[in-house]
Structure formats: structure tokens, C-alpha cells
Known about the structure:
The chain is α/β, with parallel strands linked by helices. The protein contains six helices and 33 strands.
Amino acid sequence: MTPFKAVILVGGEATRLRPLTCNTPKIMVPVLNRPLLEHFVDYLKTHNIIDIVLATGTSPEQVQDYFGDGSKLGVRIAYSIENLPLGTAGAVKNAESLLDDSFIVFNGDVFTDIDLSAMMRLHRENKATASLALTPVDDPTIYGVVETDSQGRVRHFIEKPSWDKVTTNMINAGIYILEPGILSYITPNTFSMFERDVFPLLLEEGQAVYGYPFQDYWIDMGTPDKYLKLQHDLLHRYIGNKGTKFEGESFVHSLAQIEGPAIIGEACFIDRNAIMKGPAILGTRCRVEEGAVIQGAILWQDCKIGRGAKLRNCLVASRCCIGEESEILDGCILGDDVRVEKGNKLSNGIKIWPGQTIEPGTISS
Ligand code: GTP
């Protein structure tokens, strides 16, 4: 079978993941201490896909600096850069000069184990113009659902149906195999979305649009709770329930306790009586001082957690400093370079923007 190219859409605003994405593009956000895109590349390689087009917004520098042309990871990465956001379909049209055969489009915030090889085979067998991966959800009323007939051919797209109109719980998973002819349905340099502007038009024209239902792991990690869930899921999957992975040399005091699944980045320091309770991750060079507790939390690199501080089920970006005895609890998100001074308590999903300082004794909830 001819190898497919993959187009990954990474030019969105990533507003839902702020403040984590104020300085870091969503595709560079660490998952198990590696940028999300690196996981994507590994996954694509397992399906023999090594030609990758990244459809980016105006500032692809961070991605380009890290991934370059992809050769270090054994793939070829080309960049298609938009001056203005063109939407999911407009972005693919913008990359037209890089596409000459059937190709796969991914929303860049999807993390999945879908069997792409099987999807590609079915696409060919169906002689489809477009194949859409469809995943089941518990509550279809908050998504765009996709109705198919007994042969798997798409009949309707229904946006956020009320419960009495729900006929299926299969939703568009943001993964499409498309034939290049589809590009003629998209106006160049104009904002357009596949779900809203292109797929319904293909149905009207009687084009062969098929669904590919799958049950494998799939998550849209574009919200903080899903980003946290993704890492907890992967820790259980790769590290095992009680395991701890050290990514390099670190100091762990003999009276510290670590209960996995946990990942400890290189050059971390975990002091006496500190407790790390998985699923949890420390990025490189994190420092956890005496008696501090890290439970279910994800920390990026260079964070410092003061004596007796407590972090539970929260997300902490790079270079944050948490003062002694402070608590950062359920669903809180700290952007880069946040300082929480001594004795604060943050809970209930509070978000702190990069560079802010929470002064001593400012207890928020
Ligand atoms: P939110 O602001 O949190 O909704 O994030 P988002 O816009 O990044 O995500 P959304 O779910 O809306 O988009 C799905 C995928 O398409 C993401 O990977 C986005 O990066 C990408 N995307 C969305 N709009 C554009 C666009 O105009 N151009 C490009 N190249 N990619 C886009």
C-alpha cells in the first residue's frame, strides 16, 4: 500500500489549556516529560507514516527549533505556515502543494491508539473520498455526532443533538483520511472547517464519505482535566501501578517515600520525609523539600516545592516556586514562573497566569 502522508493541525489558539499554553504551543506540551508531538511521531512511525506536514500558525519557531526537519526522529517534517488562522479545512488547503496522494489529517490534540493501518485499508476497500474515525462517547449531546448506515456510509452530521434526537453516540474523532480531490471543495485563503463547511457539502454532492468506528484509546487532551487524565492513564499503562521511572541521576533521601506510578525527570532532588504519591510526574531539575507532598500532580521542569507544601491533582508549568506549607489542590493550574509565597491555599481549579506572584497569606479557593 502507498504510504500516506499525515497532516497534523497545530495552528489553534489552545485557549482551553491556558495558562499552560501561554508560552508553550499545545503540540509541545509535555506528556510523560516529552513533547506531545514526539509521541505522535512515534505512533505514526508504527504505521509506517514518515512524511508529516505540520499545519501551524504564525509562530512555529518552538516546534521548528525542537523538531527541525524530523530527521533526528527518522521522519520528514514539512511546515505549512498560516499568516491568519484558516480553520481546520483552510489549513489543509494551505498545505495543498505538499499533498499529492491520499493523506491523513489529525487534530493535533488527539492522543489515540486507533489502528491507522486498518483504517487505511478500509478507506481503500470502500473507495472512499473521505473516511472519518468515529469514537463512542457517554454524552453525545455536547459533540457533533455522525450517523452512518449499515454499510458504514455517513448519512448525517448532527451538531449537539438533544437527548430525544440522539440516534448514535459515535462522534467525529478528529482523524480523517482524505483524497486530494477534496481540496477542490475548499476555498483558498479563507477560513473553513471540515465539520461545518466541507463534509456536509461532500454529502450533498453524493460523495463516498465513510465512518470508521473504533474502540481504541482516544482522548482530546485540549482541556486541563483531559491533559491530567491522559498522563495518569499513560503512567498506569507504561510505568505500572507501583513503578517509578528515573530518567537520569536524581537524589532521593532515604526517608523520602515514592509510591508509583511516577516519573522523576533528570537531576531532581527529593528531600527527607517528602512524599510522592502516583500517578505523578516531576520534570527535570525539580526540587521537593523536606516533608512536601506531591500527589497526582504533574510538574514541568525546574519547579521548587518548599518545605511541607502540598500539591494534589494539579498542573504546574516550568520554573514555579511553591512556598513553605502552601497547598495547591484539585484542578489548579499554574503557568510558567509562578511564585506562590508561604502559607497559601489554592483550590477549586484556580488558574494563575505566568509570572504572577501570590503574596504570603493570600488564601484563595
Ligand atoms: P481551543 O482554543 O482550546 O479550542 O484550542 P484549539 O483551537 O487549539 O483546538 P480545537 O479543538 O479548536 O482545534 C482542533 C485542532 O485543530 C487543534 O490541534 C488545533 O491546533 C487545530 N486548529 C484549530 N484551528 C486551526 C487553524 O485555524 N489552523 C490550523 N493550522 N490548525 C487549527
